[in-house]
Design a protein that fits this description.
heterodimer; A: 114 residues; mainly beta; 4-stranded antiparallel sheet; 0% helix; globular; B: 112 residues; 6-stranded mixed sheet; 5-stranded antiparallel sheet
């Protein structure tokens, strides 16, 4: 089983709909991250969380919100989806005490907003 | 302003030869640098890293070089194998900040 699991793997939705992407991990890491990747571009940080009570905005947080329900779960929501949010979304975890600055990624969620 | 740049979107090499992937950064506060490898339909996976206090780190066929004065790092793969064909992301981090900044990636193709 994957250590970092993202659901769903693919999602097609319509403009204006609210959707949630979920991430769960069995690695026992405190730190979790949400990124988006657009074609030909790198990973851009949306939100990150260093523990259950800590939520921080990344470089492109507008239009997104997150919830850290437990150490193992970090969800990303699009309150009202728009077409330019069509992208590949990745969740990641890290534990700097065990593996400095290394992040472990899920397989990604491909989102299309029509 | 893009703080981490990979100026070559793609690179093609022959099997057995050396692959050199380059990365430049602008933020002098970065103190740790990583390379990730990504296959289609999978998430990025960690490949190799280097601390800013070093100038070289080697792991098997993979070596990362850091030139702090030039704010430049490179990943050398030798010998290259067809299974190395993937997208390679350079990432830079400030350990205190706890987050990384990624380049746009370089697609490496190793031809048999």
């Amino acid at each position: 089983d994957a250590d970092v699991t993202q659901t769903p793997r693919n999602r097609i939705t319509k403009t204006g709909k609210r959707i949630m992407l979920e991430c769960s991990q069995t690695k026992g890491h405190d730190r979790m991250y949400w990124y988006r990747q657009d074609p030909g571009l790198g990973l851009r940080l949306i939100y990150y969380s260093f523990d259950v009570k800590d939520i921080n905005k990344g470089e492109i947080s507008d239009g997104y919100s997150v919830s850290r329900q437990a150490q193992a779960k970090f969800s990303l929501s699009l309150e009202s989806a728009i077409p330019n949010q069509t992208a590949l979304y990745f969740c990641a975890t890290s534990d700097p005490a065990r593996a400095k600055n290394i992040q472990y990624f899920g397989a990604g969620t491909r989102l299309s907003v029509l | 302003d893009q703080q981490v740049k990979q100026n070559s979107p793609s690179l093609s090499v022959q099997e057995g030869r050396i692959s050199i992937l380059n990365c430049d950064y602008t933020n002098s506060m970065f103190d740790y640098f990583l390379w990730y490898k990504k296959y289609p339909a999978e998430g990025p996976t960690f490949l190799i890293s280097i601390s800013s206090i070093k100038d070289k780190n080697e792991d098997g066929r993979f070596t990362v070089f850091l030139n702090k004065s030039a704010k430049h790092l490179s990943l050398h793969i030798v010998p290259s194998q067809p299974g190395d064909s993937a997208v390679y992301f350079c990432a830079a981090s400030n350990t205190n900040a706890g987050k990384s900044t990624f380049g746009d990636g370089t697609t490496l193709t190793v031809k048999p």
